[in-house]
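Hello Y.,

Per our agreement to keep a running log of every chain we model this quarter, I'm adding this entry. I've kept the format consistent with earlier entries: sequence first, then predicted structure.
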Amino acid sequence: MAPWRWTIHETLEHLRRGEISAVEVTRAYLDRIEALDPFLHAYITVTPEEALAQAREADARWTAWRRDPSTSLPPLNGIPLAIKDVICVRGVRCTCGSRILENFVPPYDATAVARLREAGAVFLGKTNTDEFAMGSSTENSAFGPTRNPWNPERVPGGSSGGSAAAVAADLCAGALGTDTGGSVRQPAALCGVVGLKPTYGRVSRYGLVAYGSSLDQIGPITKDVRDAALLLQIIAGPDPRDATSWPAPVPDYTQALIPDLRGMRVGVPPEYFIPGMQPEVERAVREAIEVLAELGAEVIEVSLPHTRYALPTYYLIAPAEASANLARYDGVKYGLRIQGETIWDTYRLTRGNGFGPEVKRRIMLGTYALSAGYYDAYYLKAQKVRTLIRQDFERAFERVDVIVCPTSPTTAFRLGERTADPLQMYLADIFTITANLAGICGISVPCGFDGEGLPIGLQILGPALGEEKILRVAYAYEQATPWHHQRPPIDAALQGRAGA
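Predicted structure for the entry above:
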């Protein structure tokens, strides 16, 4: 028996039938982390003692429930999860992949974490991330890069690459990531798993260390679509501590999981099939669209004409917000402090040594865009274009229920291949950033492999609070195709290295 291969809903069923204990499931994951993670580096911090203590509490609840089935049982009781290391977990260090917060231990849970804790989840640890979630490859982490389980010489995507790699390699049953410009969906695509970016405000940002406050959103990364619906069900909902959270009630997302698409209208935007994208990616996505039609969906071409301006718009707005958000790391209140002769020397030494090159690049870009004489020319104009991008989607969703396109223009690229060329790295998010600019929801599901055996992702975008629609399309496609059953050959690869 290999419990680490089970999905969340399968694990719950085994636990419910008493075939395995939460402690046994948790130990299986911890043993696998110990064996594989020194090579993959999906985690920054592993918390075995805390995880086993939570698992024992979960087993006590299962025992009480079996004695009296009327006893209330949390919906994720005993499920081992991982949390991206930009989301606060009480008593566990939260580094944000940065030296400046290397020893920061938050005294509280993020709202999403608190809801998972209340639901009975077990926390295995904190996953690796590009520093302050700024990156598309998880190579910007101050603690070293994460490797892709499908090919350890490739990146897992980013910035939630640690969470995506951990789910793909069966180092957790599911994980939380964050998505500012595609950082849940893009690594999910590159690692062959499911990644869901909720509508902006659908999940509270309280306890999420801010990068771009008008763009950031916490979302689940899972082994299949049903698991994504289960986790979203728990973490979604209004929060008085986050003024941007939606007050709308949370529906039962699992009710949207039906295997046919009759009556659904699926939009296909030509702007997302561009010259230079990997031919195997376009072919796999086109074939996926044919499957959606076979399942009963009506396929309609829609236009999103301002997509061409999305990349420069995003890389003005996001760095501007980062410049403001990261001003708090000054060596005074918390985090790293390098004492200088004057307060200005302390600022300069702390930030100069604490931040990595990509974070510094984005702070400088953002500060420049916000500076006197340039605010109107750059930042204000970018906000106006953002409105045009949102209006494109609003018009499109008057005609269709969802929009489908590639998640990433390529499969996973080689470690180090783009680190010297920031523009090429930024282009990795070209198909995902529009959803964040527009505040809509999106999901990536596996839809095939390239000639080198690397996963390809299909992106399904929905309107604001349209999570039920994207989950329905994603589930129907998943159930009609074999891709979600595939597992990376990481065990064989590591055995081969050991034998060599």
